[in-house]
User: Fold this.
Amino acid sequence: MDAHQLMQEAIEARKKAYIPYSQFGVGAALLGEDGYIYHGCNIENAAYSPSNCAERTALFSAIANGHVPRKFKALAVVGDTEGPIAPCGVCRQVILELCDSNMPVYLGNLKGEIQETTISELLPGAFGPEALEKA
Assistant:
């Protein structure tokens, strides 16, 4: 599956967003190694901090459905932004934890712009699982 196809899946996922406060919908599509696509959308809460971003919704859904962490092929994220959308810091940390650091991450917008990156590029000098390994 190429970046454009995965971005279309993210656009479909965005339609499911629960955004009564911000009206800012975000969609994510996570490609598993078996070819299954997990949709994620942002889900808001009146208290704000219990809200969940699209990227984490897709990742948590995949893990809850038995997908093995670090075995994903790609992640696409889309929003109605001027340029390609960027994941928040919390999402970057979760992506680092659950995905290979060199997995393609496609950032896009509704205008069709797509930027390809990786989590290691999005979160340089990150504190990851290997930091907790005993010497």
Summary: The mean pLDDT is 96. Residues 33 and 71 are 6 Å apart (CA to CA). The longest helix spans residues 3-14. The longest strand covers residues 72-79.
